[in-house]
Structure formats: structure tokens, C-alpha cells
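Posting for a labmate who doesn't have an account.
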Amino acid sequence: MKMVEEEIRLLREISCKLDQLILLLKLSNKEKLEAFRIEIEKDAIFRRILEVADGTLSYSNLVRKVSEDTGTSEITVKRKISSLKDWGLLKARREGKEVYYENSGLLD
């Protein structure tokens, strides 16, 4: 049991250090991240994807919802999702055959 407790403590310590590194990187790139956030928010499709991507909608349902909400084609939404994923603004999680996307919080 002692080994498990030690591993948990070590993982918490690593997690804390990683959070600190992320914060430092965000702070050192604050202006660039803010400019990027402003550009993303100008695009209604990008904005809507990030609003509804909470990890509960499958990829196909996310595409369908954003397409309906913005009045754009599904292929356009798919391209925008791909861009957001490439930029690290969306995280993907696979469950069986389904993929779920969630806002990574990078621009928060």
C-alpha cells in the first residue's frame, strides 16, 4: 500500500509542475495567444465549434449541430474542426468507434 501512496503523491507533484509550466508558457505568449483568440472569435464557425465541443457530442453530431447552427456545409465544419485540432484548440477522445471533441482551454 505504501508504494501506491508514493506513486499517487509523485503523480500529483508531476501534475502540479506541468500546470506551472503551462502557466508560464501562456504568460510568456500572452499577446500572441490573445491575438489568436481574437482571430478565432471573428469566425462564427470556429466560435460555435469551441462553444459546443464539450466532449458530449460525437464527431458526426458535432458536425451536424454546428452546420445547422451556422448555416454552413458539413464539409466546411469538418475542415474547421480539423484546423482547431491541429492548432491544439480541440482535444479528441475515442470511445469505441466514436470520437468526441472537447475545447482544450488553450485560449481561456
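Reply:
Got it, the C-alpha cells are right above this. The helical segments are 2-28, 30-42, 44-52, 59-70, 74-86.
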